[in-house]
Structures are given as structure tokens and as C-alpha cells.
Amino acid sequence: MNNEIKDGQVVELSYVLKNTKGEELDSATNDAPLAYLHGSGQIIPGLEDALLGLKVGDKKSVTIAPENAYGIFDPSLKMKIHSSHFPQEQKIQVGMQFVAEIKGGHVPFVIQKIEDDHVFVDGNHPLAGETLHFDVAVVSIREATKDELSHGHAHGPGGAHH
Predict the structure, then answer these.
(1) H or E, element range at 125
(2) Is 159:153 a contact under the CB 8 Å cutoff?
(3) What are the tens digits of pLDDT across the range 18-67?
(4) Which of 3, 115, 129, 150 is 20 to 30 A from 38 (CA-CA)?
(5) Among 44, 38, 55, which residue's Cα sits nearest to residue 130?
(6) Which CATH architecture best describes the domain 75-122?
(7) Domain residue spans in the chain?
(8) Whose CA is closest to 10, among 139, 162, 133?
(9) How far apart (Å, rounded) are the C-alpha atoms in residues 96 and 111?
């Protein structure tokens, strides 16, 4: 079967992700590929767009600007919050994550540091503002099952519910 990647298919990829300094940030091998449902927004838009039309065995190097990856760094999402704004029964620690409603949407925040009565948080994705460099190889392509389509993600190894 010589399928091309299109919406509604489960795609398995091996890849190496590097930043502009050439540092490896993430990877997936042929033995343990990343599985995703194409067209469901499971991977960053720039990578999803670049993979459209590729076939099994195809390899591609892709550079993705922040706008099509994890977004532009937003300094307004770095905040200093008084500790009284956190639930008193909750022991807050550096690295802890929580979701807050900001600008009409839900934004995940990470606690960066705690000083006296203040908690410093950041709602930017760790890769916000980064230009990303992917070397990808298409391992497999198959039609998604009805469950995968209704759930909006791939199931099984490399996907969800495994």
C-alpha cells in the first residue's frame, strides 16, 4: 500500500528534534516511533503541514518557526504571584504545574521559583520562541479506526491508551 499522509490516518514517525544551537531536545526511534492522528492537532502545526503527502520510508528535514511550533514567547505569561493566591492546603513546589484561566483560555503554568511570600510562574511552553529543526522518517501509515477518529488521537504503541 503506497498511502500518502493525509487527515484521518495514523502515522508513525521516527525523528530527532534539535534547537538552533544543534542541541537534541527529543527523539523517537523506528523501534519506538511516535504515533499520531494526522489532522487532529496532536503535533505542532508546522510539522503536521510539512508531513502532508509523504509516504512510508520518506525522510524529510523541516525547520519550523515559533509561530508554527509552540508560539512566540509571551513575557506577560511570566508572573509574580503572592502565595496567598494558592490554596493553603496545597504545598507548592518548584516544577509544580497548574492551569489558570487567562484571556478567556486555560493556560498551563509551571512554578519557576519561590521567594518569601511570592511565587514566580511561567505560562509559556518550554519551547516557546524556539525555531525547531526536525529530521523525520515515516515509519508507517494506516487508516484510523472509528474509535481513534472519535477520540481524536492514535491508540496503541506510540499513541494513547497503551
Answers:
(1) none
(2) yes
(3) 999 999 999 999 999 999 999 999 999 999 999 999 999 999 999 999 99
(4) 129
(5) 44
(6) Beta Barrel (2.40)
(7) 9-70+128-151, 75-122
(8) 139
(9) 5
